[in-house]
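Anyone? Bumping this.
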Amino acid sequence: AQSVTQPDIHITVSEGASLELRCNYSYGATPYLFWYVQSPGQGLQLLLKYFSGDTLVQGIKGFEAEFKRSQSSFNLRKPSVHWSDAAEYFCAVAPAGNQGGKLIFGQGTELSVKP
Amino acid sequence: KAGVTQTPRYLIKTRGQQVTLSCSPISGHRSVSWYQQTPGQGLQFLFEYFSETQRNKGNFPGRFSGRQFSNSRSEMNVSTLELGDSALYLCASSSGTGGYGYTFGSGTRLTVV
C-alpha cells in the first residue's frame, strides 16, 4: 500500500541551528513529492515540490529537499532555523501525472524552535 | 491572484444534523480536492472533482458527499453528523491536468456537539 512515513513526531532545534526533517515513502514508482507547512489553525502552505529532474529542490523560506530514489526518501532541510519556522510540517506524495487529485500525507512533524 | 477560499471558517453543529461546506478555487483551476484533518487520523483524502465530475474518492462513508459547479466552486456535504466528524476540513485547488502542486485553503473547523 502507498504510504508516507515521517519518523519524527516532534523536533526541537535552537534558533540558528540547522534542520533536517525526514520523510520516507512507499510507492510503486517514483511519485510526485511535496512538503507543506501548517501553522496552528491554518491551512497548508506548499514549501516545495519534486516532479523530476534535479534531485535537490529549492523551495520558499530558505528550505530545500533532496530526493533519493535508492532510499525512497525526500528529506527537508534548512541551514539556519528562524523562530518563525515553528509549525507542523507534512510530507506528501501523489502518483506521477496525478490525475485524481489525491495526496497521501505523512503524520507530520511538529517543529519547536528554542530562542 | 486570489487564493482558495473556504467558508465558513468555523461551524458548530449538533449530532444528527447535516452541514455544507464551500470551497472556491483559484481562478482558472478546475480541480478541487477535499481533505479531513484530525489529531488521530491526520490528513485524509475525501474526494476530488474536476470539471464537475468526481474523479477520485477516498475511504469515507456515503454520508460524505460533494459536488462541483460549472464555475469550479465545490461544496462538501456531511449528513447525519457524528461526534467523530469534528475536524478541520481543507480543500485544495489545482489545474488538474498534472501534478503542478495543490494550493490549500485555510479550512473550515467543524465541531459536532
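Late reply, but here is one note on the structure posted above: The first strand of chain A starts at residue 3 and ends at 5.
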